């Protein structure tokens, strides 16, 4: 079932590519898809991808080694992030930092909810977010300048050149901030000062009407500095930190149409991601710690699309991925190799019935092979109502960290080893007399299996010719072989040795509702109203089994008596809100004066165990829910647009649970369209 961008009067004519890897109208898709158009992003005044996604139903920005997105109850490492259909690399502990992505050249954002491993492989277990950038199909461009609180400066320029067969575009962005501090009583900022640059060139060349070449690239550079305090034997010491991020990729695509029913696309994608960090003592400038991380990704891929009849469409593809990582926390250069094939069949039986079936087979060099099938269908009940449903298998491969990490914290003294490094390093520590107790025999861990899910979505889409849209989607994801960190041994210093293994089985389920209405006002202008709500449950099946057996206990904080935990007491997985909602109003006059207000509510969510039974089951184990309100007003005159806004109007702050919220932010932006 597709969720429709409430800000467009012709939503159902929008063309999307992510859900099927082929151009399809949004209204024809039998799986949950959300489209966020350029117009909405501009009206919001957003700077980075994280700000745009934070306002969408069922999506949460969570701070875990960066700002990542939680989708249908899954952590950030289960959602694949694409730019023009190609994956971004460079995750930290599974999180891809969304603030790396500027939005000034985005044409639209497509969000596919539910597993998309049948087309995209690993990391698409929860869904796919594809950022579609502008094509150089006309002359012109835009220049933006925005300044706001915390000395936040954003400068963007997009230029397009089009002449006959050749199209060229260039997008450039500078983004910097002085950072902010939510805990002034401690040394260091919550977010340290930073400055980054993005450069995205693109060249399109049409050899003929049937043969087209596209070449695009992306370069991102960031520098950051800060300081903090560490405890040492002779007292606290002040540490200065400098860091840098380098993110670059190149994408080549050649498409040839042999006929109206047969086409071939060849793609070549290469990406590199590097970070470096230097920590020095403020007192004498000696090195406290130094680290680096280098990752590469290279993928050739070929896709053949064809149809034998008007109602039957096929797509088959094959490719290979070569990945490598070299870092301070790995003994040596580590490499992955994956070969894959996939196929998809679409049948448009009539105006009332459509079906989509597909599957993908991945052969990986470091874990067992994986097959991911998917089936989706749509039935048109009448001219206003459509029923949609899908079922599919998603998977997530073990990453470099879970397989090959070799890390010992020099200050705290604990160690973390990937499953492939565990047995060797435990033996090494034993020979050095550093192991006091072994909890689990390291040789029993074996090879990690991919995490997998069986997911289903079913929903309704209602739309009429009066600008009204309503969607409801029920979803369920059953996840097996969840990879978790686990204490394996205790060292003589009292700290533990950790590793990874397939352990838990969990599920996420819920319902998502979206409604929208577009009104032409009698006094002029148009008003667009939309609202969304998600109910979510995300729980560990082994915990539910213990509750059913009556073998899970807690201490009552009032009576201090031991009591059994009931199913109702169990709050589920950490950092998941059962209830969330949003409400947005956009008004635009006939003379291009625009105003909007957007409110996003997130209900309370479990954060940590306080009573020692390792689950969320007490009120004091939850972080409080919160409400965010953003607003902006704009006025366009000829080629100029002046816009001002306030993000986080209510000045919500929570340094412990929501460090990514800086408090009330005021800003002013000027845009010139060429």
Strand and helix map with partners:
Elements: E1 15-16, E2 24-25, E3 33-37, H1 38-44, H2 49-53, E4 59-63, E5 67-71, E6 79-83, E7 86-87, E8 106-113, H3 117-120, E9 127-133, E10 140-148, E11 152-163, E12 166-177, E13 194-206, E14 211-232, E15 235-259, E16 262-281, E17 287-309, E18 312-327, E19 334-348, E20 353-364, E21 370-380, E22 385-396, H4 400-404, E23 406-408, E24 415-417, H5 422-431, E25 435-438, E26 451-463, E27 468-491, E28 496-520, E29 526-540, H6 541-549, E30 553-555, E31 562-564, E32 579-588, E33 593-602, E34 605-606, E35 622-623, E36 626-637, E37 640-647, E38 665-673
Parallel strand pairs: 6-9, 24-28
Antiparallel strand pairs: 1-2, 3-8, 4-5, 6-7, 8-9, 10-11, 10-38, 11-12, 12-13, 13-14, 14-15, 15-16, 16-17, 17-18, 18-19, 19-20, 20-21, 21-22, 22-26, 23-24, 25-27, 26-27, 27-28, 28-29, 29-32, 30-31, 32-33, 33-36, 34-35, 36-37, 37-38
């Amino acid at each position: 079932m597709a969720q429709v961008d409430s800000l467009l009067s012709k939503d159902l004519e929008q063309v999307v590519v992510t859900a099927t890897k082929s151009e399809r109208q949004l209204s024809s898709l039998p799986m949950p898809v959300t489209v966020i158009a350029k117009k909405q992003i501009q009206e919001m005044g957003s700077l980075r991808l994280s700000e745009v996604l934070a306002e969408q139903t069922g999506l949460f920005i969570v701070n875990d080694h960066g700002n990542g997105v939680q989708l249908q109850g899954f952590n950030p490492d289960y959602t694949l992030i694409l730019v023009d259909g190609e994956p971004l690399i460079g995750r930290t502990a599974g999180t891809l930092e969304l603030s790396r992505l500027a939005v000034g050249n985005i044409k639209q954002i497509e969000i596919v909810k539910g597993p998309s491993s049948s087309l995209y492989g690993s990391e698409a277990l929860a869904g796919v977010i594809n950022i579609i950038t502008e094509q150089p199909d006309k002359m012109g461009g835009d220049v933006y300048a925005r300044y706001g609180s915390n000395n936040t400066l954003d400068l963007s320029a997009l230029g397009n050149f089009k002449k006959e067969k050749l199209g060229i575009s260039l997008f450039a962005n500078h983004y910097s901030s002085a950072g902010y501090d939510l805990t002034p009583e401690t040394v260091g900022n919550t977010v340290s000062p930073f400055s980054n640059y993005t450069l995205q060139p693109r060249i399109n060349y049409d050899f003929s009407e049937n043969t087209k070449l596209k070449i695009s690239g992306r370069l991102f550079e960031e520098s950051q500095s800060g300081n903090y305090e560490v405890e040492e034997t002779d007292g606290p010491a002040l540490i200065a930190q400098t860091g840098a991020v380098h993110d670059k990729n190149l994408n080549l695509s050649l498409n040839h149409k042999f006929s109206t029913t047969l086409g071939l696309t060849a793609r070549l994608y290469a990406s590199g991601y590097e970070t470096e960090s230097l920590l020095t003592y403020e007192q004498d400038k000696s090195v406290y710690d130094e680290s680096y991380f280098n990752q590469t990704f290279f993928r050739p891929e070929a896709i053949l699309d064809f149809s034998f009849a008007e109602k039957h469409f096929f797509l088959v593809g094959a490719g290979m991925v070569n990945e490598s990582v070299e870092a301070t926390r790995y003994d040596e250069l580590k490499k992955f190799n994956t070969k894959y094939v996939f196929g998809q069949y679409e049948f448009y039986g009539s105006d009332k019935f459509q079906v989509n079936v597909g599957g993908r087979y991945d052969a990986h060099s470091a874990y067992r092979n994986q097959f991911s099938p998917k089936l989706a269908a749509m039935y048109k009940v009448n001219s206003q109502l459509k029923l949609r449903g899908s079922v599919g298998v998603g998977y997530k491969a073990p990453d470099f960290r879970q397989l090959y990490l070799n890390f010992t914290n020099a200050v705290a003294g604990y160690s973390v080893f990937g499953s492939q490094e565990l047995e060797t390093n435990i033996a090494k520590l034993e020979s050095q007399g550093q192991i006091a107790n072994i909890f689990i025999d390291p040789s029993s861990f074996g090879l990690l299996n991919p995490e997998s899910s069986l997911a289903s979505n079913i929903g309704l889409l209602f739309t009429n010719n009066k600008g009204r849209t309503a969607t409801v989607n029920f979803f369920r994801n059953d996840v097996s072989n969840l990879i978790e960190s686990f204490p394996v041994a205790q060292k003589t210093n009292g700290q533990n040795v950790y590793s990874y293994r397939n352990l838990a089985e969990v599920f996420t389920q819920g319902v998502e509702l979206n409604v929208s209405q577009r009104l032409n006002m009698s006094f002029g202008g148009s008003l667009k109203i939309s609202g969304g709500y998600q109910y979510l449950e995300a729980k560990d099946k082994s915990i539910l089994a213990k509750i059913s057996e009556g073998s899970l206990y807690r201490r009552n904080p009032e009576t201090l008596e031991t009591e059994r935990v009931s199913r109702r007491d169990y709050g589920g997985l950490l950092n998941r809100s059962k209830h969330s909602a949003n409400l947005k109003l956009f008004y635009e006059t006939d003379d291009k004066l625009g105003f909007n207000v957007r409110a996003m509510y997130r209900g309370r969510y479990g954060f940590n165990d306080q009573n020692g039974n390792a689950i969320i089951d007490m009120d004091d184990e939850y972080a409080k829910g919160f409400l965010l309100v953003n607003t902006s007003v704009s006025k366009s005159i000829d080629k100029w647009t002046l816009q001002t806004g306030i993000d986080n109007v209510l000045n919500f702050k929570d340094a412990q649970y929501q460090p990514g919220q800086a408090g009330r932010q005021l800003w002013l932006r000027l845009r010139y369209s060429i």
